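Message: Just now I want nothing more than another pair of eyes on a protein record. I am handing you a single protein, as its sequence and its fold in token form. As I understand it, each token names a local backbone shape. Take your time, and here it is.
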Amino acid sequence: MKRERSPGMKLLLAGLVAGVLIVPLLMVYALVYDRENQSQQAQAQITQGWGGAQTVTGPVLVIPFMAESVEAETVDGVVTERRRQVRRELFVSPLAQNIETALDPDRKAYAIYESVVYSGEMQGTASFALTDELGRLDIDREDLLLAQAELRFGISDPRGLTDSARVVVGGTQVELNPGNGPLATSGRGFSAPVAEWTAEAPLEVTWSYGLRGSHSLSMIPRGGETEWHVTSPWPHPSFTGGFLPDEREISSEGFTATYAGITNLALGQQLLSVSDQPAGPVAPVNSSYPEIESVRVASATPTQAVSIGLVDPVDLYSQVDRAVKYGFLFIGFTFATLLMFDIVGGARVAAAEYLLTGAGLVLFFVMLLAFAEVIGFSLAYLVAAAAIIGLLTAYNAAVLGTWRRAGFIGLMLAALYGVLYVLLNAETYSLLIGSLLLFAALAGIMFATRKVDWSAVRKSEDAEAEPIA
């Protein structure tokens, strides 16, 4: 007679093989990360000549003025004061500004990778005036060099500017100069001179320019009151930042969003200041590609920035990443079923057969990633699941001895893949569904093995008898 392993030893063996399979699961997890990194690099290639995630601000009126500087000097132990005239700048935010933006999205491809880009038309009006805050800053109007004033527009990635930029000051179109943007966009953007303004009446400004970018558009409001209206045919916007739109409409044909009445009181800013508005605390802008340089520029914006992201509703790498995290659940359910057939049903399952079955389960995630990059996540999920279910069903027909038992394995795997797809698309209830599934599986195993003597050892009667000497 040949002794078989006890049910407890079979359980331990199946657990050890399942533990070994953690290593290839971790390798698949690393593979997903590596492919995502390659995707980000490919998208960086796409946006390199187009424009990254854009952050815009302005206009702000900058007026130089002369001020007296007092410096203390010590000569031979005697402290004396030295006075001299220095040139400084007065930053004037608009009393009110209205901005209209139209975004036209598109997809650009590089090899098998795609990136969401857009072409935008920006236009707006702004009104400037010197308020009573000038006295608070202890600045006389006579010291203002109004003839040297200029308007500054901020754009985080000037590569996206088109040749349609136009600024009209007091009814006259003015010449534009590159660079010298506001501090909030790290000095990037363009400027326009303001001449023949006496500050007796408000300065009326009309402007427009074309802008190309990718992934998201952020606007930094400033001034007494800012209104921003955005339209686009993109059906999947994401609204983030310091303010949310007061009105928005989203449909399959696109979206419209209106930010109305963002005031300087809400921003905590004065209309007049002797320093440019600082960049402030950094808050993340909606983006899935932090490694791309242009996106890092956009994410270094103030907390009061408002952002609109053109979101791709299917981020295949995040979905595959989440699927891999459920990999051990697949291995556990399949091994538990094989173990029940071994212990309760009398089938014999060797360690190598557990290992090969587990390898097939791990291969599902590799196939899912490979196909998803080419044909999309949903179709790739169907193809990979069908291939692995067919493979393991046929293999376990030989392992378990009957197609009936193998069919049960196939149905269980089909149910598991169906539940996993639901979990991947129902983030809110994924934990609840997963916990109920584990509870049901544990209850089923307990019921099936309630009469098993885990320490008993059976003897096999089909072993060949030893020859008599």
